[in-house]
């Protein structure tokens, strides 16, 4: 399967006509060295309107386009990671492996924050960004951003379980917002939630009698996990994916 075109940039053209190595320009904009070489080989990079052929060539930075969009040094970061099990959703931890450490060095230098938390045993989509207001809105219950999970559970939920989740489940001190349950197969479900409370998915499914055995986040705010990413692999969000996050957060993108 062909990987979706990646476009990570700050929306402003590079200025000054400085000549730089093409691969260094692309990596400074957040691509890994391998991703930069693949983008050039695939014809996704143009210099002055002409497809680039040599990732090591010195070029006018102001004339470089990736997937038809200007390439600039990093402004805001929008990044997708396929989080593996066994790592913490943290920027730093002195004792255990973190999801942050799996990001490319050029991205880590900008210290992006994870958008929400996935438990150590939970896998799947984890978005990182340096855009503070977007981050706040994506995780705030106020904006009801959809998060979609795939869960392997004990037993198989029925229509009554789905209706109970739609109506909201009463817990001590609060009642959950409506959640949408789809049964995908025996012991396999998709659950869409909009709150993001602590252990929300696990608590909801346990409450209807189907404890979670394994859990993975499939999508958030209209952005789906890239199926071509292996566990621990990451890539920049495409322009369309970034736009989807801003729409989900009801925030204008400058």
Short description:
With 254 residues, this protein is an alpha+beta fold. It has 7 helices and 17 strands. It has 3 domains: 1-75, Structural Genomics Hypothetical 15.5 Kd Protein In mrcA-pckA Intergenic Region, Chain A (Roll), CATH 3.10.290.10; 78-141 and 222-248, Pseudouridine synthase I, catalytic domain, N-terminal subdomain (Alpha-Beta Plaits, 2-Layer Sandwich), CATH 3.30.70.580; 146-220, Alpha-Beta Plaits, CATH 3.30.70.
Write structural notes for this entry.
With 254 residues, the protein is of the alpha+beta class. The chain folds into 3 domains: 1-75, Roll (Structural Genomics Hypothetical 15.5 Kd Protein In mrcA-pckA Intergenic Region, Chain A), CATH 3.10.290.10; 78-141 and 222-248, Pseudouridine synthase I, catalytic domain, N-terminal subdomain (Alpha-Beta Plaits, 2-Layer Sandwich); 146-220, 2-Layer Sandwich (Alpha-Beta Plaits). 22% of the residues lie in helices and 27% in strands. The chain has helices at 22-28, 33-41, 105-108, 132-139, 159-167, 200-207, 239-248, and strands spanning 19-21, 45-47, 50-51, 58-60, 64-66, 69-70, 78-83, 113-114, 123-129, 147-153, 170-171, 174-175, 180-185, 188-193, 212-220, 223-224, 234-236. The strands form 4 sheets. Strands 7, 8, 9, 10, 13, 14, 15, 16 and 17 form a 9-stranded mixed beta sheet that branches. Strands 3-2-5-6 form a 4-stranded antiparallel beta sheet. Strand 5 (64-66) and strand 6 form a beta hairpin. Helix 1 (22-28) crosses helix 2 (33-41). The longest helix is centred in the C-terminal third of the chain and has 10 residues, at 239-248. The relative contact order is 0.17. Residues 1-17 have low confidence and may be disordered.
